[in-house]
């Protein structure tokens, strides 16, 4: 077992059960399954995939992995209170309250964790998000990866309809959004061809679905 795998296992033993259960409880009364505790768990799994891809080309320590896990399980918690596109601020507040109410020791990089939670929903992709080894970039890309593939079709459809978007407007808006996400993913991870090609295929699955749907509406 290499050091990265050991640190991931150590992180999961400490955090996974309690964060998953908290997230599950938080969404128990919310009718938004596309972004519930299972979405947060998938994002954490994508974080692990990104970390494994980047290792050993960049140094990764336990605090950083722990930060990725905490941010993964809080980034969309704000959607339990609001379905607004910009919900990161609300998610940040929930994370702060959780650590305060549980009397938990504050992680060394807590400010970076909170920043990633708050800013993950800004899909303008400022240069700071194009640093592949930053916590914000990893959380943002892991979240985007869960918008690709068959699960992405469900996630986009549900959240856009909940936000009041007309169904005939859905395809064009999804295509615009997913293209933006993929451009950022490509800029960040094009130098990792196996990882890049795998998720390019998943992106095309989602895009092709909405492209055909758009044609049917026309």
Could you characterize what this model shows?
With 218 residues, this protein is mainly α. Helix 1 runs antiparallel to helix 2. Helices cover 68% and strands 0% of the residues. The protein folds into 2 domains: 138 residues, Hypothetical protein af1432 (Orthogonal Bundle), CATH 1.10.3210; 72 residues. The N and C termini lie far apart (54 Å). The chain is built from 9 helices and no strands. The chain is globular and about 55 Å long.
How do the strands and helices of this protein lay out in sequence?
Layout: H1 3-26, H2 37-54, H3 62-74, H4 88-101, H5 110-119, H6 135-145, H7 150-162, H8 170-189, H9 193-217
Protein traits:
218 residues, Hypothetical protein af1432, 2 domains, 0% strand, globular
Q: Could you tell me the mean pLDDT?
A: 93
CATH class category name of the largest domain: Mainly Alpha
**Biggest β-sheet strands, sense, barrel:** none
Question: Which parts are unreliable, with pLDDT below 50 for 5 consecutive residues or more?
Answer: none
Order of helices and strands: HHHHHHHHH
Write a concise synopsis of the structure shown.
This protein is mostly helical and 218 residues long. 68% of the residues lie in helices and 0% in strands. It has helices spanning 3-26, 37-54, 62-74, 88-101, 110-119, 135-145, 150-162, 170-189, 193-217.
